[in-house]
Amino acid sequence: MSKKVYVSLIADLIHAGHINILKEASKLGEVTVGLLTLKACGELNDIPYLDYNQRKEVLENLSMVSTVIPQETASYKENLETLKPDFVVHGDDWLTTNQRKYRDEVVETLKAWGGELMEIPYSHNINDLHIKEQMTKLGITTSARMGRLRKLINAKPVVKILETHNALSGLIAENASEILEDGTVVTFDGMWSSSLTDSTSKGKPDIEAVDTTARLMTINEIFEVTTKPMIYDADTGGKAEHFEFTVRSLERTGVSAVIIEDKTGLKKNSLFGNDVAQTQDSIENFCHKIKVGKSAQISKEFMIIARIESLILEAGMEDALNRAFAYIDAGADGIMIHSRLKDPTEIKEFVSKFREKDSSTPIVVVPTSFNSVTTDEFAKMGVNVVIYANHMLRAAYPGMMKVAKTILKHKRSLEAEPDCMPIKEILELIPGTK
Ligand code: SPV
Ligand code: MG
């Protein structure tokens, strides 16, 4: 009887490196590919462009592959224990990456029935990451960018979004990364077009005074130099008749989601709370606006997310929950629950009560005030999207003001230099400057 061989793959872009591994694997016996599901890919922070069935179809048509089965987690353990393969075949690259823990688990698991791990020398001149980097440099299509947010929400425990108010802050959201203590590389998943920071950076108040055309100009500048998905803060969405057009314009531009808040009249920023006069819309009116938006939408991927201001305006938890379910019934694709308290208790209470009745509708939070909660904690609570809504602009302004005042004080710029980026660095910051 031929030996059983197991190969685990994402197989988004099949290249010579994969073919080499599958060829070697098929020399050992009958190959079963454990194809990572979207959730499993999310655990590895590697979200494929192609969906599961598209990837499966390619693999099933390769002569080296006998069977394709789903691998539901980044860990191989469950599939290995069911299949009990004689061999697992993998590139030797995982010895030095954050996948090392899965490798060690494979070795341990195989011991139970005397299976063997075969490691094939990694093809250094060709790998997915490099190809994906090259593709990212070429940019992204409007529809691929738009659809990406839904994929990320489905795949990842929590989606991290950073505020952007111009192309430069867009580049930060695109490129900023950090290596954590356990070796995991973390990045932001997408961008937030904030009404507060887009207005502020144009020197205007956050009262819907900057019109949609001007807001879209900012987004187009950001989209010229980035590939990540964007969530758009549309304030109240304006009149339902106008919101229809906003939805179409956002879709055409490639924005993934719009958030509208259930306020009416002259909108003021939520972080003022009841310190300024603000009125919440009726459930009926707001549901009508959601319905109009949903029927204006052309693509399947675009999302309309309803933002509930009940906690901001001290209308109570029950009102917030009633509204959430009414807005979902009207067709909202997600809920944003806002709070301006430092203490996250009311947010936690909302999420847990909401999740008792609805386990799947995405929940979005903007933890500007309740900033002690980590993204991991939000994920455990049942939150899907966390938006850091204003930090890039709030970081930039004090730096600029300090330097301006230092120049005034010293009647020259010498003393301001330590607070400025060196000229050589700014010249080389953007590739293609030379
Ligand atoms: C924004 O960023 O403009 C928002 C979030 O709407 S908040 O400022 O918290 O209201
Ligand atoms: Mg806003």
Concise account of the structure shown:
This protein is α/β, with parallel strands linked by helices and 434 residues long. The chain has 17 helices and 17 strands.
Assigned CATH superfamily of the largest domain:
Phosphoenolpyruvate-binding domains
> What small-molecule ligands were found?
sulfopyruvate, magnesium ion
Strand content: 15-25%
- Count all strands and give the number: 17
Radius of gyration: 25 Å
What distinguishing features does this structure have?
binds sulfopyruvate, 434 residues, alpha/beta, single chain, Rossmann fold, 3 domains, globular, 8-stranded parallel β-barrel, 5-stranded parallel beta sheet, TIM Barrel, binds magnesium ion
Architecture overview:
By secondary structure, the protein is α/β, with parallel strands linked by helices. It folds into 3 domains: 126 residues, 3-Layer(aba) Sandwich (Rossmann fold), CATH 3.40.50.620; 250 residues, TIM Barrel (Alpha-Beta Barrel); 35 residues, no CATH class. It is built from 17 helices and 17 strands. The chain has an 8-stranded parallel β-barrel, surrounded by 9 helices. The longest helix has 20 residues. It is globular, with a radius of gyration of 25 Å. 35% of the residues are buried.
Topology:
Elements: E1 4-9, H1 16-28, E2 30-36, H2 38-43, H3 52-60, E3 67-71, H4 77-83, E4 87-91, H5 100-110, E5 116-120, H6 128-138, H7 142-155, E6 159-163, H8 167-175, E7 177-179, E8 185-187, E9 190-193, H9 195-201, H10 212-224, E10 230-233, H11 240-253, E11 257-261, E12 263-264, E13 279-280, H12 283-296, E14 303-308, H13 317-329, E15 334-337, H14 345-357, E16 363-365, H15 375-381, E17 385-388, H16 391-410, H17 423-429
Helix pairs in contact: 8-10, 10-11, 11-12, 12-13, 13-14
Magnesium ion is lined by residues 194-196, 206, 233, 235.
